[in-house]
Design goal:
By secondary structure, this protein is mainly alpha-helical. It is built from 6 helices and no strands. The radius of gyration is 32 Å and the shape is rod-shaped. It has a domain of 63 residues.
Length: 113
């Protein structure tokens, strides 16, 4: 990483690129920026602006996700409502309905030929 990058990053955070109006005017006062050609320096400024926008968007989106209530499908179930009948409540109910190994048992029941 170039030693100039943190300076440029700080200048974009401080919005110095807006005060000077052109990349050339921003480049002139600092001796650290002199080795860069004007077009390359302008591209570096634009890249830093894109980075700042992305960071802002990322922090905003993360905050919105943290605030937003969790999405539930359909009507939320309350404590007073019983559990749906199609969902087995106990281990015995699951076994009566077939359970996770029902498919293996079906293969044993099939008679070949």
């Amino acid at each position: 990483m170039s030693p100039v990058k943190p300076l440029l990053r700080q200048d974009t955070k401080d919005e110095m690129h807006l005060h000077y109006m052109t990349s050339e005017n921003l480049q002139l006062p600092r001796l650290e920026y002199k080795p860069f050609k004007p077009r390359i320096f302008q591209n570096r400024i634009l890249q830093e602006i894109r980075l700042q926008k992305y960071i802002h968007y990322y922090l905003y989106a993360s905050a919105c996700k943290a605030i937003a209530p969790p999405k539930t499908e359909g009507k939320p179930q309350t404590e007073d409502e019983p559990q749906k009948e199609d969902e087995p409540q106990t281990e015995e109910d699951r076994e009566k309905k077939g359970g996770p190994h029902q498919a293996e048992d079906d293969w044993e029941k099939i008679e070949i030929g």
